[in-house]
Protein backbone atom coordinates (compact mmCIF):
# COMPACT_ATOMS: atom_id res chain seq x y z
CA UNK A 1 0.00 0.00 0.00
CA UNK A 2 2.87 2.38 0.75
CA UNK A 3 4.37 1.68 -2.68
CA UNK A 4 1.08 2.39 -4.41
CA UNK A 5 0.71 5.61 -2.42
CA UNK A 6 4.23 6.71 -3.37
CA UNK A 7 3.46 6.00 -7.01
CA UNK A 8 0.31 8.12 -6.85
CA UNK A 9 2.11 10.92 -4.99
CA UNK A 10 4.94 10.97 -7.51
CA UNK A 11 2.49 11.08 -10.41
CA UNK A 12 0.86 14.14 -8.82
CA UNK A 13 4.20 15.75 -7.99
CA UNK A 14 3.45 15.81 -4.25
CA UNK A 15 5.10 14.54 -1.08
CA UNK A 16 8.55 15.52 -2.22
CA UNK A 17 8.45 13.28 -5.29
CA UNK A 18 9.96 15.78 -7.68
CA UNK A 19 11.10 15.02 -11.21
CA UNK A 20 14.44 13.24 -11.05
CA UNK A 21 13.84 11.95 -7.51
CA UNK A 22 14.19 8.20 -6.82
CA UNK A 23 10.42 7.86 -6.42
CA UNK A 24 9.67 9.73 -9.64
CA UNK A 25 12.27 7.72 -11.54
CA UNK A 26 10.70 4.49 -10.35
CA UNK A 27 7.23 5.68 -11.28
CA UNK A 28 8.42 6.53 -14.79
CA UNK A 29 9.40 2.87 -15.16
CA UNK A 30 6.35 1.36 -13.47
CA UNK A 31 3.78 3.76 -14.87
CA UNK A 32 1.38 5.79 -12.76
CA UNK A 33 -2.37 5.80 -12.43
CA UNK A 34 -5.11 8.32 -11.77
CA UNK A 35 -8.84 7.94 -11.31
CA UNK A 36 -11.43 9.67 -13.46
CA UNK A 37 -15.21 9.44 -13.65
CA UNK A 38 -16.83 8.93 -17.07
CA UNK A 39 -20.06 10.55 -18.21
CA UNK A 40 -21.92 7.38 -17.20
CA UNK A 41 -20.55 7.64 -13.66
CA UNK A 42 -18.16 4.71 -13.94
CA UNK A 43 -14.74 5.14 -12.34
CA UNK A 44 -11.77 4.17 -14.51
CA UNK A 45 -8.01 4.38 -14.24
CA UNK A 46 -5.92 6.24 -16.77
CA UNK A 47 -2.22 6.01 -17.48
CA UNK A 48 0.28 7.79 -19.67
CA UNK A 49 0.14 5.87 -22.97
CA UNK A 50 3.14 7.74 -24.37
CA UNK A 51 5.64 6.38 -21.86
CA UNK A 52 7.84 3.91 -23.72
CA UNK A 53 9.39 2.74 -20.48
CA UNK A 54 5.97 2.13 -18.95
CA UNK A 55 4.93 0.06 -21.94
CA UNK A 56 8.12 -1.96 -21.74
CA UNK A 57 7.59 -2.95 -18.10
CA UNK A 58 6.01 -6.37 -17.74
CA UNK A 59 6.24 -9.54 -15.71
CA UNK A 60 7.24 -9.13 -12.12
CA UNK A 61 6.79 -5.89 -10.23
CA UNK A 62 9.70 -6.80 -7.99
CA UNK A 63 12.13 -7.19 -10.89
CA UNK A 64 11.59 -3.51 -11.59
CA UNK A 65 11.40 -2.48 -7.97
CA UNK A 66 14.53 -4.24 -6.74
CA UNK A 67 16.65 -2.80 -9.54
CA UNK A 68 15.69 0.76 -8.62
CA UNK A 69 17.59 3.23 -6.45
CA UNK A 70 14.29 3.88 -4.70
CA UNK A 71 14.24 0.30 -3.40
CA UNK A 72 17.92 0.25 -2.47
CA UNK A 73 17.85 3.54 -0.55
CA UNK A 74 14.47 3.36 1.22
CA UNK A 75 14.81 2.89 4.99
CA UNK A 76 12.46 1.29 7.50
CA UNK A 77 11.78 4.74 8.95
CA UNK A 78 10.46 5.92 5.59
CA UNK A 79 7.58 3.48 5.72
CA UNK A 80 6.87 3.47 9.46
CA UNK A 81 3.69 5.34 10.23
CA UNK A 82 2.28 4.87 6.73
CA UNK A 83 0.06 2.01 7.89
CA UNK A 84 -3.22 2.47 9.73
CA UNK A 85 -2.20 0.79 13.01
CA UNK A 86 0.50 3.26 13.99
CA UNK A 87 1.68 4.35 16.46
CA UNK A 88 3.58 1.54 18.11
CA UNK A 89 1.84 0.45 21.30
CA UNK A 90 2.81 -2.53 23.44
CA UNK A 91 1.14 -4.24 26.37
CA UNK A 92 3.06 -5.15 29.47
CA UNK A 93 2.49 -8.57 31.01
CA UNK A 94 1.08 -6.79 34.08
CA UNK A 95 -1.68 -5.02 32.09
CA UNK A 96 -5.24 -6.21 32.54
CA UNK A 97 -7.39 -8.26 30.22
CA UNK A 98 -9.79 -5.31 30.00
CA UNK A 99 -6.98 -3.07 28.77
CA UNK A 100 -6.15 -5.55 26.02
CA UNK A 101 -9.78 -5.88 24.88
CA UNK A 102 -10.34 -2.12 24.84
CA UNK A 103 -7.20 -1.50 22.77
CA UNK A 104 -8.26 -4.15 20.24
CA UNK A 105 -11.77 -2.72 19.92
CA UNK A 106 -12.45 0.89 20.93
CA UNK A 107 -8.89 2.04 20.25
CA UNK A 108 -8.71 0.21 16.90
CA UNK A 109 -5.48 -1.72 17.39
CA UNK A 110 -5.27 -4.83 15.24
CA UNK A 111 -2.45 -6.48 17.15
CA UNK A 112 -0.59 -5.82 20.38
CA UNK A 113 3.00 -6.80 21.17
CA UNK A 114 3.47 -7.99 24.76
CA UNK A 115 6.61 -7.00 26.67
CA UNK A 116 7.91 -7.42 30.22
CA UNK A 117 8.32 -4.30 32.36
CA UNK A 118 11.82 -3.02 31.64
CA UNK A 119 12.44 -5.80 29.14
CA UNK A 120 13.90 -5.29 25.70
CA UNK A 121 12.18 -8.04 23.73
CA UNK A 122 8.67 -8.87 22.59
CA UNK A 123 7.33 -11.88 24.50
CA UNK A 124 4.26 -12.45 22.36
CA UNK A 125 1.70 -10.77 20.11
CA UNK A 126 -2.04 -10.70 20.79
CA UNK A 127 -4.30 -10.21 17.77
CA UNK A 128 -8.02 -9.71 17.25
CA UNK A 129 -8.11 -13.16 15.67
CA UNK A 130 -6.54 -14.78 18.74
CA UNK A 131 -9.17 -13.20 21.00
CA UNK A 132 -12.01 -14.50 18.83
CA UNK A 133 -10.34 -17.93 18.81
CA UNK A 134 -10.24 -17.80 22.61
CA UNK A 135 -13.97 -17.02 22.63
CA UNK A 136 -14.63 -19.99 20.35
CA UNK A 137 -12.91 -22.21 22.89
CA UNK A 138 -15.28 -20.97 25.61
CA UNK A 139 -18.21 -22.90 24.10
CA UNK A 140 -19.95 -24.79 26.91
CA UNK A 141 -19.03 -22.36 29.67
CA UNK A 142 -22.16 -20.92 31.37
CA UNK A 143 -21.22 -17.24 30.90
CA UNK A 144 -20.48 -17.74 27.22
CA UNK A 145 -23.59 -19.78 26.49
CA UNK A 146 -25.75 -17.13 28.18
CA UNK A 147 -24.22 -14.33 26.12
CA UNK A 148 -23.60 -16.35 22.97
CA UNK A 149 -27.26 -17.20 22.38
CA UNK A 150 -28.15 -13.52 21.89
CA UNK A 151 -29.11 -12.55 18.34
CA UNK A 152 -26.98 -10.07 16.44
CA UNK A 153 -29.87 -7.61 16.39
CA UNK A 154 -30.16 -7.84 20.19
CA UNK A 155 -26.52 -6.81 20.52
CA UNK A 156 -26.90 -3.91 18.10
CA UNK A 157 -24.97 -5.60 15.29
CA UNK A 158 -24.07 -4.72 12.64
CA UNK A 159 -22.82 -1.39 13.98
CA UNK A 160 -22.58 0.30 10.59
CA UNK A 161 -25.66 1.50 8.72
CA UNK A 162 -26.08 -0.05 5.22
CA UNK A 163 -25.52 3.29 3.48
CA UNK A 164 -22.18 3.71 5.30
CA UNK A 165 -20.76 0.38 4.12
CA UNK A 166 -17.46 0.87 2.27
CA UNK A 167 -17.64 -1.14 -0.97
CA UNK A 168 -16.72 -1.29 -4.65
CA UNK A 169 -18.72 -2.47 -7.63
CA UNK A 170 -17.44 -5.41 -9.64
CA UNK A 171 -16.66 -3.26 -12.71
CA UNK A 172 -14.60 -0.66 -10.81
CA UNK A 173 -10.77 -0.85 -10.88
CA UNK A 174 -9.40 -2.95 -8.04
CA UNK A 175 -7.02 -0.06 -7.33
CA UNK A 176 -10.12 1.83 -6.22
CA UNK A 177 -10.73 -0.86 -3.58
CA UNK A 178 -7.26 -0.48 -2.09
CA UNK A 179 -7.50 3.30 -2.28
CA UNK A 180 -10.77 3.20 -0.32
CA UNK A 181 -9.29 0.90 2.32
CA UNK A 182 -6.50 3.37 2.86
CA UNK A 183 -8.77 6.43 2.91
CA UNK A 184 -11.43 4.91 5.16
CA UNK A 185 -9.07 2.98 7.44
CA UNK A 186 -10.73 -0.40 6.88
CA UNK A 187 -9.06 -3.78 6.43
CA UNK A 188 -11.35 -5.08 3.70
CA UNK A 189 -14.50 -4.46 1.72
CA UNK A 190 -17.10 -6.31 -0.36
CA UNK A 191 -17.19 -6.44 -4.14
CA UNK A 192 -20.80 -5.84 -5.21
CA UNK A 193 -22.59 -7.11 -8.30
CA UNK A 194 -23.89 -4.76 -11.00
CA UNK A 195 -27.07 -4.12 -9.00
CA UNK A 196 -24.97 -2.89 -6.08
CA UNK A 197 -26.97 -4.97 -3.60
CA UNK A 198 -25.29 -8.39 -3.45
CA UNK A 199 -21.67 -9.16 -2.54
CA UNK A 200 -19.86 -11.45 -4.99
CA UNK A 201 -16.54 -11.40 -3.17
CA UNK A 202 -14.37 -9.81 -0.50
CA UNK A 203 -11.03 -8.05 -0.90
CA UNK A 204 -8.74 -7.60 2.11
CA UNK A 205 -5.85 -5.20 2.56
CA UNK A 206 -3.44 -8.18 2.52
CA UNK A 207 -4.62 -9.11 -0.99
CA UNK A 208 -2.61 -6.21 -2.39
CA UNK A 209 0.28 -8.69 -2.43
CA UNK A 210 -1.29 -10.48 -5.41
CA UNK A 211 -1.59 -7.22 -7.30
CA UNK A 212 2.17 -6.78 -7.11
CA UNK A 213 3.59 -10.33 -7.10
CA UNK A 214 1.45 -12.35 -9.52
CA UNK A 215 2.78 -11.56 -13.03
CA UNK A 216 -0.54 -12.21 -14.78
CA UNK A 217 -2.25 -9.73 -12.49
CA UNK A 218 0.52 -7.15 -12.28
CA UNK A 219 0.66 -6.58 -16.04
CA UNK A 220 -2.90 -5.19 -15.86
CA UNK A 221 -2.81 -3.81 -12.32
CA UNK A 222 -3.79 -0.28 -13.39
CA UNK A 223 -6.95 -1.37 -15.21
CA UNK A 224 -8.03 -4.77 -13.88
CA UNK A 225 -11.52 -4.65 -12.36
CA UNK A 226 -12.39 -5.91 -8.90
CA UNK A 227 -14.29 -8.87 -10.36
CA UNK A 228 -11.46 -9.85 -12.72
CA UNK A 229 -8.97 -9.42 -9.88
CA UNK A 230 -10.88 -11.96 -7.77
CA UNK A 231 -10.97 -14.38 -10.68
CA UNK A 232 -7.25 -13.94 -11.42
CA UNK A 233 -6.25 -14.37 -7.76
CA UNK A 234 -8.27 -17.58 -7.46
CA UNK A 235 -6.56 -18.94 -10.57
CA UNK A 236 -3.17 -17.92 -9.17
CA UNK A 237 -3.91 -19.63 -5.85
CA UNK A 238 -4.96 -22.82 -7.62
CA UNK A 239 -1.77 -22.81 -9.66
CA UNK A 240 0.36 -22.22 -6.56
CA UNK A 241 -1.72 -24.71 -4.55
CA UNK A 242 -2.19 -22.13 -1.81
CA UNK A 243 -5.08 -22.12 0.64
CA UNK A 244 -6.95 -18.85 1.07
CA UNK A 245 -10.41 -17.56 2.07
CA UNK A 246 -10.51 -16.02 -1.42
CA UNK A 247 -11.08 -19.49 -2.86
CA UNK A 248 -14.45 -19.83 -1.16
CA UNK A 249 -17.75 -18.04 -1.48
CA UNK A 250 -18.56 -14.88 0.45
CA UNK A 251 -19.28 -15.76 4.08
CA UNK A 252 -22.62 -14.30 5.21
CA UNK A 253 -25.04 -14.34 8.12
CA UNK A 254 -28.45 -12.98 9.14
CA UNK A 255 -29.42 -10.51 11.86
CA UNK A 256 -31.29 -13.29 13.68
CA UNK A 257 -28.17 -15.49 13.93
CA UNK A 258 -26.67 -15.99 17.39
CA UNK A 259 -23.37 -14.27 18.17
CA UNK A 260 -21.98 -17.66 19.20
CA UNK A 261 -22.49 -19.02 15.67
CA UNK A 262 -20.81 -15.97 14.15
CA UNK A 263 -17.77 -16.38 16.40
CA UNK A 264 -17.44 -20.05 15.49
CA UNK A 265 -17.77 -19.27 11.78
CA UNK A 266 -15.18 -16.48 11.83
CA UNK A 267 -12.76 -18.68 13.77
CA UNK A 268 -13.17 -21.78 11.62
CA UNK A 269 -12.95 -19.87 8.33
CA UNK A 270 -9.99 -17.77 9.53
CA UNK A 271 -11.58 -14.56 8.26
CA UNK A 272 -11.81 -11.05 9.73
CA UNK A 273 -15.30 -10.00 8.61
CA UNK A 274 -18.66 -11.49 7.77
CA UNK A 275 -21.40 -9.82 5.73
CA UNK A 276 -24.98 -9.53 6.96
CA UNK A 277 -27.68 -10.21 4.36
CA UNK A 278 -31.47 -10.05 4.29
CA UNK A 279 -33.81 -12.82 3.15
CA UNK A 280 -33.21 -11.87 -0.50
CA UNK A 281 -29.43 -12.04 -0.18
CA UNK A 282 -28.96 -8.28 -0.27
CA UNK A 283 -25.99 -7.06 1.76
CA UNK A 284 -27.10 -5.03 4.79
CA UNK A 285 -23.85 -4.60 6.67
CA UNK A 286 -20.62 -6.12 7.92
CA UNK A 287 -19.47 -7.51 11.27
CA UNK A 288 -15.76 -7.48 12.02
CA UNK A 289 -13.65 -9.06 14.74
CA UNK A 290 -13.41 -5.62 16.32
CA UNK A 291 -17.19 -5.30 16.45
CA UNK A 292 -17.50 -8.57 18.35
CA UNK A 293 -14.78 -7.71 20.85
CA UNK A 294 -16.38 -4.31 21.46
CA UNK A 295 -19.54 -6.03 22.70
CA UNK A 296 -17.60 -7.69 25.51
CA UNK A 297 -16.26 -4.58 27.21
CA UNK A 298 -17.10 -1.15 28.58
CA UNK A 299 -14.45 1.41 29.46
CA UNK A 300 -14.77 2.78 33.00
CA UNK A 301 -14.38 6.54 33.31
CA UNK A 302 -10.73 7.67 33.51
CA UNK A 303 -9.69 4.03 33.13
CA UNK A 304 -6.51 4.60 31.10
CA UNK A 305 -5.21 7.61 33.02
CA UNK A 306 -1.69 8.33 31.73
CA UNK A 307 -1.46 4.98 29.94
CA UNK A 308 -0.94 6.57 26.52
CA UNK A 309 1.78 8.97 27.65
CA UNK A 310 4.50 6.49 26.73
CA UNK A 311 3.21 5.77 23.23
CA UNK A 312 5.75 6.40 20.47
CA UNK A 313 4.38 9.46 18.61
CA UNK A 314 3.29 9.31 15.00
CA UNK A 315 6.12 9.99 12.53
CA UNK A 316 5.84 13.15 10.37
CA UNK A 317 5.01 11.07 7.28
CA UNK A 318 2.14 9.21 8.98
CA UNK A 319 -1.03 8.72 6.95
CA UNK A 320 -3.11 7.31 9.80
UniProtKB/TrEMBL annotation:
Give the protein's recorded name: CBS domain-containing protein
Task: Fetch the InterPro entries from UniProt.
Answer: AMPK_gamma/SDS23_families (IPR050511), CBS_dom (IPR000644), CBS_dom_sf (IPR046342)
Per the record, the domain of life is Eukaryota
In which organism is this protein found?
A: Oryza meyeriana var. granulata
Write the lineage as a comma-separated list: Eukaryota, Viridiplantae, Streptophyta, Embryophyta, Tracheophyta
Keyword set for this entry? Answer: CBS domain, Repeat
- Domain CBS span(s) in chain numbering: 160-219, 243-304
Repeat as UniProt keyword: yes
Q: Which CDD domains match?
A: CBS_pair_SF
Amino acid sequence: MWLLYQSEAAANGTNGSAVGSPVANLVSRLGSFTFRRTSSGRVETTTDPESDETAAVGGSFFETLTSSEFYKNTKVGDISGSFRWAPFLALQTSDTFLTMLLLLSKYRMKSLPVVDMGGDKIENIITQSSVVHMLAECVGLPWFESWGTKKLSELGLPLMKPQKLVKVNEDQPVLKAFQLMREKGVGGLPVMDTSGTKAIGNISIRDVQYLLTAPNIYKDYRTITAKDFLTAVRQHLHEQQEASPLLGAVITCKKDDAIKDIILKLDSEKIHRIYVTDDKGNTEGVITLRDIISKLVHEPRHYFGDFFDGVVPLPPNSTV
